[in-house]
Design goal:
Layout: E1 2-6, H1 10-22, E2 25-29, H2 33-40, H3 51-60, E3 64-67, H4 70-76, E4 79-82, H5 98-110, E5 115-119, H6 127-138, E6 144-148, H7 158-163, E7 168-171, H8 176-184, E8 195-198, H9 200-231, H10 235-243, H11 264-277, H12 283-307, E9 315-319, H13 334-344, E10 348-352, H14 357-360, E11 367-369, H15 373-377, E12 382-385, H16 397-403, E13 408-411, H17 418-422, E14 427-429, H18 440-446
Helix pairs in contact: 1-3, 4-5, 5-6, 9-11, 9-12, 11-12, 12-13
Length: 447
């Protein structure tokens, strides 16, 4: 099939590259000429493992093209995916749909034959109705079917998620779209990927509900972690114990500094606003949003308490900046709040991240970046593990001990265990585990 993907950011580029890898003829479109020029030269605008190889292979095979010219690509396409950004609108938290609406008008002006227009961007309930209205208003002769097809891609594992999905949700109002969408995803049939056809508004809500539930699950285990610290329990054992119940499951039960990224923060907020607008408030999600915001700021206070009463003039070294490993995405990363909180207390901050340092420079200031964990640890009063990159899972602690001013290791991802770190002369602080002053019997049972 001939597919056009409007928007060559994270969702659009991954989707377009994978569709081309299935054998479809794909054109990725973006208004950013510099981005398109870079993609033509094999330079990725994002870090996603394996993406550069798929783009290179399909570009060489002429199945994947990049252009700034929307008109010619849309006029030839059987299916056009809208994959532009929907950031939180400044001031009120609603999803900013201005890019989606602009693209809908441009598509309307360029469609020629029957075309399925698919919203891949994460959008509030009713957006498909508005996209269809805009297309009809702009070009009354346009023969289109507007479809909702939300993405469920994890940054760092997006290609695997696209090719081996749990489900493919497709919201339609025009039955002609069913055959087209079935053909678009036909290459996945050998993997028995389930296609779930629903009404369009239902499809739009499935995406928001899924992200909100996962964000709520993360927030739940983070609050349980605080209780574990207070009573002398181990949150990892608690998470494992409840996760063995298949009604709950173990995924997204990893205590940490709070969720971030391009999806959960903006999507939970947009869902809250949508619910309020329709007079059906979602109190659990409202609480999730508030608790997560507070938690990210609380992590800086946790580090400060571990260092001592006054952190003014102290040097804190952060391992990891991105909101999760295997991405360079800094959007809403807990590291931003941690850095700002430490700097507000007068601390000097150093940092190292395998992929995120260039992105971080646009989010925070007055941070000294290093080439590796050992460079930033030299003379530091605390080493804080913020993002659980594989590169931080086997640190040379004797070397770190020899470099640091004070051997304090704050593990905000529970990558290590206290007895291992203590063996090398470090004080160790983690999330949701018994504190050092918990009675020995309790500590031994938990550790």
């Amino acid at each position: 099939m001939r597919i056009a993907v409007v928007g060559s950011g994270y969702v659009g580029l991954v989707s377009g590259a994978c569709f081309a890898d299935f054998g479809h003829e794909v054109t990725c479109i973006d208004s950013d000429a510099a981005k398109i020029a870079a993609l033509k030269n094999g330079i990725m605008p994002i870090y996603e493992p394996g993406l550069d190889q798929i783009v290179a292979k399909n570009s060489a095979a002429k199945r994947l093209l990049f252009t700034t010219e929307l008109g010619s690509a849309v006029s030839r396409a059987d299916a056009v995916f809208i994959a532009v950004g929907t950031p939180s609108r400044r001031g009120d938290g609603h999803a900013d749909l201005s890019y989606v609406h602009t693209v809908a008008r441009e598509i309307a002006q360029n469609v020629r034959n029957f075309t399925v227009v698919i919203t891949k961007s994460t959008v509030p309930v009713g957006t498909g109705d508005e996209v269809e209205r805009i297309i009809r208003e702009t070009n009354p002769q346009a023969d289109v079917a507007v479809v909702s097809n939300p993405e469920f891609l994890r940054e760092g594992a997006a290609i695997e998620d696209f090719k081996r999905p749990d489900r493919i949700v497709i919201g339609i109002e025009d039955e002609r779209a069913r055959a087209v969408m079935t053909e678009v995803y036909r290459p996945l049939y050998l993997n028995k990927a389930p296609l779930l056809f629903t009404a369009r508004r239902t499809s739009e809500l499935i995406k928001y509900a899924a992200n909100a539930f996962l964000a709520m699950k993360i927030t739940f285990i983070n609050e349980i972690a605080d209780l574990c610290e207070a009573v002398g329990s181990d949150v990892q054992d608690v998470a494992h114990g409840i996760g063995l119940d298949n009604r709950i499951g173990g995924k997204f039960l990893h205590a940490g500094p709070g969720y971030g990224g391009s999806c959960f923060p903006k999507d939970t907020l947009a869902l809250v606003k949508t619910a309020q607008d329709h007079g059906s408030p979602l109190r659990l999600i409202e609480a999730t949003v508030a608790i997560n915001d507070q938690r990210k700021r609380a992590m800086a206070r946790k580090v400060a308490r571990a260092i001592g009463a006054d952190i003014r003039g102290k040097t804190v070294a952060l391992l990891g900046l991105t909101f999760k490993p295997n991405t360079d995405d800094m959007r809403e990363s807990p590291a931003i709040s941690i850095i700002q909180g430490l700097q507000d207390g007068g601390a000097k901050v150093r940092a190292f991240d395998p992929e995120g340092m260039e992105q971080a420079k646009a989010c925070v200031s007055d941070v000294t970046y290093g080439a590796d964990p050992y460079t930033i640890a030299e003379g530091a009063d605390a080493l804080v593990l913020v993002t659980e990159w594989d590169a931080f899972r086997a640190l040379d602690f004797p070397r770190l001990r020899s470099l640091m001013n004070d051997p304090l290791f704050v593990d905000l991802r529970n990558v290590y265990r206290r007895e291992l770190i203590a063996r090398h002369g470090f004080r160790y602080v983690s999330i949701g585990r018994p504190k050092e002053d918990i009675p020995v019997a309790l500590s031994t049972a938990a550790e």
